[in-house]
Each structure stands twice: as structure tokens, then as C-alpha cells.
Design a protein that fits this description.
Chain lengths: ~300, ~300
């Protein structure tokens, strides 16, 4: 794995596995989840959905695979080459299929593969922009898209149970006039603090940066922080240091330029998105309140289960 | 695409796209779905969940990625090399990352990739067996696992809107004494006919075979049919010929041998699974009742929405 666990992370993962909440697969960052875990996650998702009602979002769901060309157009590979994931499939005849089967039986590298033209979706908002770009220009006020609890993948095996390779983002996307979008992002940053506080988490907010790759990436992180384009709401999970539970991102015209999204009156459209990392939010609740939801603070139980 | 659409398939896809129910991505078999589509799918899932209550299933959820070694142990690559999908990620330094970024900007093949050790899950039951194999032997009566509405991937780009590359299986798995498992599979085959009939679909059942690869695969299909290991419940979707909506599979000791699952008394355990192809079931409803659920037969609406 790319980053071995700290003693605290290994200890918390061990507790989760012993309690049956998390099921190991043999690969770090890829886990199964018990009924209790899934129930807490879904209850948290419903809490967020309730708060989103006043945005009147349009629900659009996408699978966690994306055309390679769509990801390439966004410039993702310039910023996060280390996190990208391309899907390869078999290209061959019967003899080559037999060689693939034999290699697989020996757990060797698979021969005779080629790009399928699909990649794994690295963030839940990526399929939204091309879909909106194919529509007519946006009416005044723009729109809000609710992509649900969407699975995303990042190639970063880690021993921290709060850093999964495939995880769920409870994600909303706002596209519209620059000032509308910026205000929406700020409203949700404050709202997320309140939501996570309401279930007993000691959540804090801070300016943040994406994990851009390499030396050039450090400059991109600095610039992103300077412009306050990204905020994170954090709480402790597997370490005493807080982990990001939700992220609030103002893209300015990045995605709207790439996908030719404009306002009806011809003016510029901007975009922003927010995502709650649902497994992280769920883990933070288990960390804070204990591994048995039946013995959680009745106020938290009432909020989630009624 | 591997198989171009028939006129009927292209026509139905066009209607779905025009109605906004299905959103094209640019790659055949990868689509987004509207609020209306997702609502119908979720209502159908809830209907299946209600019928599953008397199995008292244990809910376990898994992400749609699987350790490569797990898929290899199952022998999947010997049967379905053409459908498998391996996840590749970047392995390189800053210079190589720049080369990757430049290749991506030109929509060329990505250089400097290597296997991540993960594959896409081809059927929702695959992660269940290793998880159960790590538990103590099964008590009398065995167990039933509900993996929910799980995403799976198969590398088969097709112009038929009823053949997706990534899709949802509403899947249940039964592991236990051979006769218990076989009876459960047969019960659900009949139950699925009734469920799909209750929402107005002209569903039929037949012995079926998996799409095994190549000439050797044709022998495996014959053998599977002879032993009646697989049934499918079918209804028309994009073609007059019926399409499989749900599948009922008796694995005998295949997965239980691979993952060392046995009964508490030392006797042999068998497994079976069933999966409703949720997008197919949803599409069959749109085909049968029209693209606007508000004008569907009130009896069907009542069953789904109350």
C-alpha cells in the first residue's frame, strides 16, 4: 500500500472489523460494509437530502464509469495523474484467451489487454457537465443537480480506514451566474457545519487544497488556497488530527468552459460542487458515539432515525 | 461498439433520450438516468425487498471493485475473458506524469500505467463468498445475504439500450445445504415471475446459459443447460424477442469449494444467487406502459408507489 497505517488507524480498522461493521477484501481501501454501517450511512444521506430540498435540485444519476475522452477534456490527468484509473479489457482470440486464463490462474499480469475507452469516475460531478452542456443555455438562476450518493474511485491504497479507494460522495452541483454559485457554495459550507454538528460531531471548517501531483502541483495547491476555491469540513476519525468529511469547491469557469455551458443571456456561467464523503461521515459517527448505534445519544438517534 | 443496434433498439434508445429518461455519455452502454427513471428503479427495488423479507437476509454491501486475486481464484477468466475488466493506474515520476498528461490531452493511449490489483466486479455475488469463507462454518439452514442494488461491470459495448456495461443487480445470495439452496433458487424463480407479472409485464421463464467465451464456452453452455443450473425470467424490452430481466443461478459447490465454505457439521455447502437487472426491469416497464409513469395503469402505480 502507498501509505501504511498509523497505530491509531490500524487500531480503529481492527475495531471496525472485529465489530463486523467493516469487512476486509484483502486490498487496502476496499471494504464491504454491514447492515448497521449501511443503515447509518443511508440515514445520514437522508438528513443531507432533507437540507437540500430548498435548492429544488434536479436528480440525475450516473454510473461510476466515464468515457476516457470526458476525463481527458477536463484536464484531470494534468492535476491528478496518480489518482486516475483506466479500465482495460481483453482483446484477443481463443488462443490468447487461454493464455489470459492461464496467467490469471497463476495470479500473474493479464496479457492481451487494451484500453476499453472508459475510466473510473474520480469525482461525482464529472458526468454532470457534459450532460448539461448538451442542453440549451441555462435560464436565469441556473440549476442545481443532485447526483445522489455516487460511487467514485481514486487509486490510493492506504491503511487508513478513512481513506477508501472506492467511496460514496453525497454530491450536489450548482451551475449558474458566478455570484449565485459562489453564494450557494458558501451557504452549504455553513450548512454542512450545522448538519454534522447536529449529529454530535465536533466539525470545523478550513480552506483546503486538492492533492495535486508533484512540484507543479504544490504551486496549484497554493494558488487554490490563495483564491479560497476549496473548503473542507473536518472532524476526527482514525487519528486525533481531523479528517475532511465534506468538501465545497468553486470551479469558476473551468468546467463550464470545457463543456460550453453558458447563461441564456449569453453571459458566463460558473460551477461549484459539494460532496459529503459518506463512509467518512459514518466512520466519524462510530468514532464519536461508539460502534453500537443502539447506545448512541438519544438526540442523535432521534435526528437520524425519525 | 461490439454489436451495433437493431433498428428497434436504436429507436427505443432514441425515445428514451428524447424523453430525458436516459442521458447519453458518448460510449455505448454507459448512460445517466433521470429522476423519473431512478424513481421507478428504486420502487421496483423496494418491491423486491418486500418479497425478500421472509428470507430474513443479512444485508452486506460491497463496492463494485474486487481484488484481482479474488476474481482469479473463481476461474472467471477461463469462462468470461471477454467480459473482464482490470483497473490500471499511473506508475511513474514527474517527467512521466507530464507525458501522461500530454497523451491524455491528445486523447491517445495513456503511457506509464500498471495493474492496480483491482478489477471491476462482474456479478454482485462475487465479494460475498470470500467474506463468508472467513467466518465460522455455516449453521444448519445456512444463510441468505442481501447485497442490495449493486453495480457490476461487463466489457460489452452494445447499441442495445437494454445491454449496459455498468448496471445494477438487485441481488440475493443463498449458501447452505444443497437441497435448501436448490429449493430457494426455484422458489425465487417462481416468485420473480409473479413479481414482474404483478407490474404488468408479460414475463416468461426458461432454462438459460451464461455467455461463455469461444468454442470451449459452447460446451460449457450446453452442460449448464443440461443440468438446468441457470434460469432466466424474460420480457420484451427493445426487441420483440424477450430479454432476460432476472437470473437464477445454482452454482453447486463452485464458490463454496474455492472459498472453503462448509456446514457446521462438516457437510458440503452449495450456493445460489439471483439478480434482477434493475435497468432492464425499469426499461421493460417503460416499454410496456409508456414513458410517462403518471399515466400508467393505476393498479401498477398503486403497487409501486404506495
Amino acid at each position: 500500500m502507498r501509505r501504511p497505517p498509523t497505530p491509531g488507524e490500524a487500531g480503529f480498522l481492527g475495531q471496525l472489523v472485529d465489530a463486523g461493521l467493516v469487512i476486509e477484501s484483502g486490498v487496502p481501501g476496499v471494504y464491504g460494509f454491514s447492515a448497521t454501517f449501511v443503515d447509518v450511512r443511508e440515514r445520514l444521506e437522508a438528513l443531507v437530502t432533507g437540507h437540500a430540498a430548498d435548492d429544488c435540485p434536479e436528480r440525475l444519476h450516473f454510473p461510476p464509469v466515464l468515457p476516457k475522452a470526458t476525463l481527458e477534456k477536463s484536464g484531470y490527468l494534468n492535476s491528478f495523474p496518480h489518482l486516475g484509473a483506466s479500465i482495460f479489457g481483453f482483446e484477443g482470440d481463443e488462443r490468447e484467451a487461454a493464455e489470459l486464463g492461464a496467467a490469471a490462474a497463476r495470479h500473474e499480469s493479464w496479457p492481451h489487454l487494451g484500453e476499453t475507452g472508459l475510466v473510473l469516475t474520480p469525482a461525482a460531478c464529472y458526468p454532470v457537465y457534459p450532460a448539461i452542456g448538451r442542453r440549451a443555455p441555462l435560464p436565469t438562476g441556473g440549476l442545481c443537480i443532485d447526483v445522489g450518493s455516487a460511487l467514485v474511485f481514486r487509486n490510493e491504497p492506504s491503511g487508513d480506514p478513512a481513506r477508501l479507494q472506492m467511496f460514496r460522495q453525497r454530491e450536489l452541483v450548482r451551475i449558474g451566474e458566478p455570484e449565485t454559485v459562489a453564494a450557494w457554495r458558501d451557504k452549504w459550507r455553513d450548512r454542512a457545519l450545522a448538519i454534522l454538528g447536529s449529529v454530535g460531531l465536533e466539525a470545523t471548517v478550513d480552506i483546503a487544497a486538492d492533492p495535486f501531483f508533484g512540484r507543479a502541483g504544490r504551486m496549484m495547491s497554493l494558488s487554490q488556497r490563495e483564491q479560497a476555491l476549496k473548503f473542507e469540513v473536518m472532524a476526527p476519525i482514525a487519528s486525533p488530527q481531523p479528517t475532511a468529511l465534506a468538501s465545497f469547491n468553486y470551479h469558476r469557469d473551468h468546467f463550464t468552459q470545457v463543456h460550453a455551458i453558458a447563461m441564456e443571456d449569453g453571459s458566463e456561467a460558473h460551477s461549484a460542487c459539494l460532496g459529503f464523503g459518506m463512509e467518512r461521515c459514518t466512520l466519524a459517527l462510530f468514532r464519536k458515539h461508539g460502534l453500537e448505534p443502539r447506545s448512541w445519544d438519544p438526540a442523535v438517534r432521534d435526528l437520524l432515525w425519525t
